[in-house]
């Protein structure tokens, strides 16, 4: 995105609309105080060759009125996030523009951009399973309301609409660029041909995008289909998309991540995946330069669990996911508490990813936290776990935290159970979740089932235990027994907790709403 002070213009960048080329062209009008967010290294090289200004002021700002800011601006930032980050007078006085594209055409572009054709994923299955991409640009640039842009440049009439802005030479500079192009076949990938093969998908788009279709006068494509294109977009994959929680289009994912509480066997899982799948597999990146870049910092963790997917968190994920190279696995449990699931969906990686929900016997898991004093010093839950004082928690901790460290550890374990249910409920139709436990996965049969869920039939190798706590067995057994007794006294259903949180209008990726009643999200203890 760009805030160009000389033109008094804010560019809100939507997806698959030629936005990067427009951004490069628009940056040529920016002064030293304008805000320009980074784009891909290849596109930055193109911008440098043109001698246009590159990324600047996207982390610290000096506003025209003399005030300074430390807001984080990033690629594909939503209009609402921009509005919250800029001074009110700039939002109100600057012209907000974006680019809009016929949804029938845009979804085809997204299909080829994600490489679904190369993986033999039929077009209709891609759209049906990942229909959230149809509303993605409406989330970035709402069609109506206080965050709606002033001007929508129509992708189909860009020359006319860009020239109507009255900015000298902008169309010439823009039209000479072609960033991120040439992924779509020249023949047989036009909307008329594709939707002749997939009329039900056209019905779905007509329903999902009714508002923008009516506003911009888009029409359902109609034409005689190209027989070769019919074969390309309807060819069956080796196996149909599996049903159930978040069916992924390919049983062998490009990326594997973990949603887990920690002290659940994530170090063991990283080694298991690396040795059995023969792919790069990381537990927790702990090199000096990884903190804040590959591993969320305390600031990132606190921001997400207080404000949701705000500027610093989104900027972290821009860099983190931008460096991924398939195949890759990572069992770092902090990611799932810092917007991993939201980021995978927002960055279009959900179709290529499987997320393993890894659990452990709950009493033993909680005992491990207690034995290590994990909730004694506040910096440990800030960096590695969750804190009961965060605004964006699903469970009200007030009935458990008076019990001290053991109560806080129980609250955290139950909060994570509620978050597993929350993510499956909200994102299960977009992202494939595979569930296992440490106790199951470390057996021959359980490991074989886990391998099969990842698309592999061969016999699994079982690594030895890792990161086991060095505590007296009798002491641990007594503590586990005490925790089991406490858990039996707690009335808790993770599904009910997650659904109640959602039904009250809450989401983890936005700032928390005030709790609506004293019992909202509360754990009942007998």
* Count of beta strands: 14
Strand order within the widest beta sheet: 3-1-2-6-7
CATH topology annotation of the largest domain: Rossmann fold
What fraction of the residues are assigned to beta strands by DSSP? 5-15%
Number of domains: 2
N- and C-termini, Cα separation: 53 Å
Largest sheet: 5 strands, mixed
Q: Structural class, please?
A: alpha/beta
The CATH class of the largest domain turns out to be: Alpha Beta
Q: Nearest-angstrom radius of gyration?
A: 25 Å
The number of helical segments is: 24
Question: Considering DSSP H and I runs of 4 or more, what fraction of the residues is helical?
Answer: 40-55%
The rough form would be described as: globular
Mean pLDDT across the residues is 87
Low-confidence stretches: 235-250
Provide the CATH architecture of the largest domain.
3-Layer(aba) Sandwich
In short:
With 526 residues, the chain is α/β, with parallel strands linked by helices. It is built from 24 helices and 14 strands.
Q: How is this structure best described in words?
A:
GO terms for molecular function: transferase activity. This is Sulfotransferase family protein. It comes from Phaeobacter porticola. Residues 224-252 are annotated as: Disordered. With 526 residues, the protein is α/β, with parallel strands linked by helices. Helices cover 42% and strands 10% of the residues. It has helices at residues 19-27, 41-49, 79-85, 88-93, 103-113, 123-129, 136-140, 158-164, 170-175, 191-197, 199-208, 210-216, 227-234, 266-277, 298-307, 311-322, 340-346, 362-371, 379-384, 405-427, 438-441, 444-453, 473-488, 494-503, and strands spanning 2-4, 9-11, 35-36, 61-62, 68-69, 95-100, 151-154, 255-260, 281-282, 328-330, 353-359, 432-437, 490-491, 524-525. The strands form four sheets. The protein has a five-stranded mixed β-sheet with strand order 3-1-2-6-7. Strands 9-10-8-11-12 form a five-stranded parallel β-sheet. Helix 10 (191-197) crosses helix 13. The longest helix is centred in the last third of the chain and has 23 residues, at 405-427. The chain is globular.
């Amino acid at each position: 995105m760009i805030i160009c002070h000389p033109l008094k213009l804010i560019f809100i960048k939507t997806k698959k609309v030629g936005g990067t080329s427009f951004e490069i062209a628009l940056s040529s009008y920016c002064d030293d105080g304008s805000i320009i967010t980074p784009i891909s290294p290849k596109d930055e090289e193109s911008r440098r060759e043109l001698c246009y200004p590159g990324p600047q002021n996207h982390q610290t700002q000096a506003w025209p009125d003399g005030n300074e800011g430390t807001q984080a601006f990033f690629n594909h930032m939503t209009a609402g996030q921009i509005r919250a980050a800029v001074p009110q007078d700039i939002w109100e006085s600057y012209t907000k523009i974006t680019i809009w594209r016929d949804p029938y055409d845009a979804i085809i572009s997204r299909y080829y951009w994600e490489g679904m054709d190369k993986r033999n994923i039929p077009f209709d299955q891609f759209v049906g399973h990942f229909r959230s991409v149809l509303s993605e640009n409406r989330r970035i640039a709402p069609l109506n309301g206080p965050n709606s842009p002033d001007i929508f440049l129509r992708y189909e009439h860009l020359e006319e609409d860009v020239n109507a802005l009255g900015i000298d030479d902008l169309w010439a500079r823009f039209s000479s660029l072609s960033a991120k192009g040439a992924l779509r076949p020249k023949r047989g990938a036009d909307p008329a041909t594709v939707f002749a093969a997939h009329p039900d998908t056209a019905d779905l788009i007509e329903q999902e995008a009714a508002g923008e279709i009516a506003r911009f006068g888009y029409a359902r494509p109609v034409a005689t289909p190209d027989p070769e294109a019919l074969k390309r977009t309807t060819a069956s994959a080796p196996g149909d998309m599996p049903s159930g929680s978040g069916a992924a289009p390919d049983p062998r994912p490009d990326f594997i991540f973990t949603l887990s509480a920690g002290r659940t066997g994530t170090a063991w899982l990283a080694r298991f995946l690396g040795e059995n799948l023969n792919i790069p597999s990381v537990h927790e990146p702990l090199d000096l330069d990884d903190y804040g870049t590959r591993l969320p910092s305390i600031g990132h963790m606190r921001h997400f669990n207080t404000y949701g997917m705000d500027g610093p968190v989104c900027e972290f994920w821009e860099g983190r996911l931008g460096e991924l190279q398939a195949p890759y696995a990572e069992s770092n449990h902090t990611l799932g508490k810092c917007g991993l699931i939201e980021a995978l969906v927002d960055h279009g990686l959900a179709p290529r990813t499987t997320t393993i929900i890894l659990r452990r016997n709950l009493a033993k898991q909680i005992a491990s936290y207690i034995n290590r004093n994990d909730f004694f010093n506040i910096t440990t839950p800030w960096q590695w776990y969750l804190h009961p004082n965060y605004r964006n928690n699903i469970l009200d901790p007030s009935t458990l935290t008076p019990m001290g460290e053991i109560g806080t550890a129980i609250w955290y374990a139950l909060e994570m159970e509620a978050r597993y249910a929350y993510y499956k409920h909200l994102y299960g139709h977009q992202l494939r979740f595979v569930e296992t436990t440490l106790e199951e996965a470390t057996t021959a049969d359980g490991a074989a089932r886990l391998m099969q869920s990842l698309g592999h039939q061969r016999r699994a190798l079982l690594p030895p235990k890792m990161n086991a706590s060095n505590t007296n067995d009798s002491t641990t057994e007594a503590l586990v027994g005490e925790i089991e007794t406490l858990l039996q006294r707690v009335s808790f259903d993770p599904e009910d907790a997650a659904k109640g949180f959602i039904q009250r209008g809450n989401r983890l990726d936005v700032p928390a709403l005030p709790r609506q009643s004293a019992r909202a999200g509360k754990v009942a203890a007998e």
